[in-house]
Amino acid sequence: MTGKTAPPAKKTAPAAAKKKAAPAPKEEPAPKEDPAPKEEPAQKEEAARKEEAAPASATEEPLAPEHPPEQPPAPTDKPAPVPTEAGAEAAPAPAEGSPAPPAEPPAPAPEPQPEKPKEEPPSCPLSLAVEEVSENSFTLTWKAPEQTGRAVLDGYVVEICKDGSSDWKAVNQEPFLSTRYTIPNLSSGDKIHVRVTAVSASGASVPATLEQPVLIREILQLPKIRMPRHLRETYIRHVGDAVNIMIPFQGKPQPEVSWTKGEQPLDTNRVNIRNTARDTIFYIRQAQRGDSGKYELTVRINGAEDKATLDIQVVETPGPPQNLKLVDVWGFNVALEWTPPVDNGNSEIKGYRVQKSDKKSGKWFTVLERCTRTSCTISDLIIGNTYSFRVFSENICGLSDSAAVASGVAHIEKTKTTYQPEKIPQRDMMEPPKFTQPLTDRTTTRGYSTHLFCSVRGFPQPKIIWMKNQMEIREDPKYIALIEQGVCSLEIRKPSPFDGGVYTCKAVNPLGEASVDCRLDVK
C-alpha cells in the first residue's frame, strides 16, 4: 500500500508550494514522472526529498520577510497542501519566467571614502588677436585668464594648424608667461589657425582660438615720416648742450633711412645716427654753433620715398654793443647812441639794457630794459651829480657777458641864478613861541613805526626840544625829529611797550618858551 500511494504525494506537494509562494522565482518545475516501480518505493521517495530540499534551502532566507512561516491560513476554496511523508516542509518552487535567485547572500559593500575636491584648471585666455603680420611670421597678443585656480599659472602654450589640416603643433617648447608671442618661420601664402592654452599644475584651460585663419603675407606700406610737432619748427639748443632727437616713421618692408646736410653726407665725427625698424635717432654729444643748419631726412622703399627737414639752431650769448658814445647833455637829460654787436650769438638781438652810475655811490642802476633801438634819452638826472653809462645786448640766451661803457661822463650842472629880494619896509616881527596845533594822545601797535605831530609859530624861529617822561631825547637813532614850515614831527621807529609814556614838545626862543604833551600807548 505504501508503494502505491507515494507517487501521487510527490505531485501534490509542488502544486501546493506553487500556490503558497507565487512571486518567488521558479528555477525549474518538478518533472511529472510515472509512478516508480512498486519494488523500489523507498529509494524514489528519498531521491525526491533531496531534490526538493535543495531549492527550498537556497530560497528560504530571502523569502522569509515576505512569507512568515506562522501566518494563519487564509480561507480558500483550493485544497490544502499535503505534507510529505517524512514530515519535512516542502519549499516553494520559483514561478515560471522569473530569474533564478542568487546562490548565496551578497557580501556587505565597503564604506565609500570621501573624495578630495579636484583643483579647477585656469580659465580661457582673453582677447586673442593678431598684432602684426609679415611675409614669414605674425605676432599674437592676448590677456591673462580671469581665473587661474589655486595653482600658480605656469604659462601659455601656442599651437598652430594649417588650414585644411587637423594636425595641431605646439610652437613653443616650454610654457611662457608673456602675453605676446611672434610665430616665425612660416611660408608666405599659408593660412594658419592658431590657439593659445593657459597651463598650470591643475591642468590646461580651454584654448582661445581665432575665428578666422591668419593669411601669411607681407602688408606693403608706403614710407611716411611722423615728425613730432615740436620739431616742425626751429629746434634751438645752447652751445655745449646735447642734441638727442628721435623721429618715428613707418613703411613695409623696412625702409632705407638716410641723412644729409646741404645735400652732403653727415660728418660722423660730429653726428651719430642710429636707425631701427620704426624710428631714427639723431645725436650730438656737445653742440657747437657750426652744427646749426637744415638736416634732411629721407625714408625710401624701392621707388617711393618721404622727406622731412630738421632745422637746428645752436645759440650762445651775444657780444657787447659797439661805439657807445655820449651825444648830448642838457638840463637833467642825456642822449646816448651805439651800434649793434659784431657777434649776435647766432640769434636775433631782442633788445638792449641801459644802466647808469652816479659818481657818489658808484652803483649801477638799470634805467631802460629791452630797448629795441640803438639810441636813447635818459631823463630825471639829479642836478649836481656826475653820471657814467653802459649798455648790454640781449638775445634768446640772455645778456651779453660784458657791456659797452661810454668813454665820457655827464655832469649835470646847477643853473646860475641871481635872486633879487623885494624891498619891504621893516616892521617888528618878534613873537614868543606859541603852539597852534597841540599833540594828541595816540595808541599804536608794537613793531609798527608811529609819528607825533604838532605846529608852532614864533620869531625868531624857536628851538624844538622833544622829551619823554620829562627826559630830553637826544641823539637816539630810534627817534627822528623834524620841523618844516612850523610843523614839528617825531618819528618813533618800531616801538615796543617800553617806548610808551608821556611825550612833550618844547619850543624856546629869546622871547619865551611853550610846550605841549601827549600820551603814547604801545600794545
pLDDT < 50 stretches = 1-40, 53-98
> What does the average pLDDT come to?
80
**Tally of helical runs:** 3
The radius of gyration computed from the alpha-carbon positions, rounded to a whole number of angstroms, is 63 Å
Secondary structure: number of strands: 36
- CATH superfamily of the domain at 221-315, please? Immunoglobulins
What distance separates the N and C termini? 157 Å
Overall structural class, as computed from helix and strand content, comes to mainly beta
The main β sheet shows up as: 6 strands, antiparallel
CATH class of the domain at 221-315: Mainly Beta
InterPro entries: FN3_dom (IPR003961), FN3_sf (IPR036116), Ig-like_dom (IPR007110), Ig-like_dom_sf (IPR036179), Ig-like_fold (IPR013783), Ig_I-set (IPR013098), Ig_sub (IPR003599), Ig_sub2 (IPR003598)
Protein name: Myosin-binding protein H
Biased composition (Basic and acidic residues): 25-53
Keywords: Cell adhesion, Immunoglobulin domain, Muscle protein, Repeat, Thick filament
